[in-house]
Amino acid sequence: MLFCRLLPTVFLLLSASVLTPALSAQGAQAAEARSSEPHQDQADSQHGHVDSGAFLTAVVATHNGDDLDAARAFRAAAAADPSNKDLVKQAFVRSVMAGDPEAVPLAKINAALPGGQTIISSLVLGNDAAVRGDWPAASRYYQQAGADPMAHLIMPMLQAWCHQAQGHADEAIAALTHIQGSVLVPFYTLHAALIAQVAQKKAQAGDLFAQSARLMPGYDLLLTRSYAAWYWEQGEQTKARTLLRSMLEADPVLALAGTQLQASISHVPVSSSQQGLARAYVLTAFLLRQQSLQQARQNAAGQESRHMPDDHQFDEASRLMLGFALGLDPHLAEARLMLAEIQDDEGHQAAARETLLRIPQTDPLAPVAAFRLALADSVTGHLDEARDKLTRLAQASPNLVLPVRALGNTLSAQKDWKGAIAAYTQAIALAGPKKTVDWSLLFLRAMAYHEVGDWAHAKADLKAALALSPDEPMLLNSLGYSMAERKEDLPEAEKLLRRAVMLAPQDAAIRDSLGWVRVEQGDLKEGIMLLEQAAEQTPEDPEVNYHLGEAYWRAGRHSEAVDQWNVALGLKPEPGDEALIRAALARAAAGGDKKAEQIQHASPPKVEVPADQSGGKHTP
Question: Least C-beta-crowded within 10 Å: which of 227, 477, 482, 551?
Fold first, then answer.
């Protein structure tokens, strides 16, 4: 398998890119020494002393995902201690990741150190030679990296573009098309087609595009745009538009840029060998990114392996490749979109926003960047900005579900429930004719209906969602619990919740819901057992603790009930849940319970919220 062959490379790349604990400890020690010696002579820094200020700045920038600031700070630290190989290496790698031209002189310095000639330095120097137009030198540098497994996989593309730049297009195309048995054959064929397109070998380019399309699994953006541009140049505009439209219909995110992509349909995405090299690196980054996502899924399923890099390490390697790509083509939107996705997954939302903002508004993929920016704004609490961006996107693409649905989510986050209902209703109407309505869209609208107290519509949406996905535990739980809260057809609610427990036996919220239904039906023994299990799983959930307290109260265990409500009150419950907890304590105090009375007087009660607007994790 391809990814098994990539693993040795990932380890090699990461040996140069991951900030080691030893280096971090060294920086901390240096910082401590610096603080204890405020008047230390600057000349001492040239004799093995780390510039702690620059180093710590670099560590913080690395932690925040800001490669450019990290690169600058590591360079400052390395300048203060040029004999420190670890600092020089970190300055070099972060400069590569940032696509910073300063990576080139650092590559030369790094290569001169013992053991410093690595795949990374060879590729950086090869890319620099390509940018300068010294293609023979570029080819030689790439050849030095060719023994590495990853470089071996992309080396045919790198060398082919070097041949093309030197006027040897036929040789480049032959080298790529003669490769057999590799999982990258579809991509080799695509790059052969791109080389033919750049070399104005129009008939051969068309044949190779057609061959690549037959081999490619699914739609590929670069292939589709390049092939459509070829069709357009041949005067076959209808075929060009049909090809592009088919891809847009298959990808709802790319569909956001449909108007812009159609407007630039005659534009050839790769018009030079330098751009071709950048695309080869983007492909490598994509492969590593896919391995990262697969590794994350395995880790989430408890399938971690001591012999496998974790998903963060794969993403570090992917970012290196994207740094190469952006160093060759700073305006490459696909590279910036992938980089922003990685930064966002790593929790570096600010860095992801900066990456997306560097995509020019004139780029055909600018609407995709705008959508990603809106999602980042939502996550970081900039809801007004997110709403404005999504409103513009929805207006620009009135037939697309994605921006309207995202707008509904943002309006829900702003508690504009009526606006959210309108947005979700529009999204459902748009999805209906295409038969793409999914249960989650109905669930989202049900949640908004619930918040405005419209149980009839909320229930209808939940039932419609269950018709689409009858085995979805979240839906079964939401409908069953909502019915139980209203004491509506408790046997049916129990049936729904028992099925949910069967499908998700470890879900504490579902177990709590079933326990509450049993309490409402008068079966305190099973109800308390289920609620105690849920409380043990989620001891900091105020709603679960409230339910358990109510069950204790009904069972005559009044002291335990008051204790449980006291715990629930200290867990910062939602306003609706707090109102229920305080009402329970007031009931206990009115019955003469001194502890409940003391709790009641310990803090002023908040304004009560109508029961139908209580929300909670169980309700839709």
Answer: 482
The number of helices, as runs of H, and strands, as runs of E, in the chain is: 33, 0
In a domain, 552, yes or no: yes
Count the residues in the chain: 620
The residue assigned the tokens 């996550």 is 379
Q: DSSP per residue over 160-216, as a string? A: HHHHHHTT-HHHHHHHHHT--S-TTHHHHHHHHHHHHHHTT-HHHHHHHHHHHHHHS
Domain with 588, as residue range(s), is: 539-600
Task: Say how far apart CA 388 and CA 368 lie, in whole Å.
Answer: 15
Closest CA to 75 of 100, 38, 39, 42: 100
Backbone torsions φ then ψ of 339, nearest 5 degrees: -60, -45
Average pLDDT over every residue of 591-608: 71
Does this model's pTM top 0.85? My answer is no
The one-letter amino acid code at 76 reads A
| pLDDT at 39 > cutoff 60 | no
Place of tokens 């989620």: 538
- How many other C-beta atoms lie within 10 A of the C-beta of residue 587? 12
The helix (H) or strand (E) run that includes residue 221 is: helix 221-233
Q: How many domains are contained in the chain?
A: 2
Given phi > 0 = left and psi -120 to 50 = alpha, else beta, which region is 380? alpha
HSE value, Cβ hemisphere, 13 Å, CA-based, for 181: 0
Structure confidence by residue, pLDDT tens digits, 100-116: 788 888 888 777 777 66
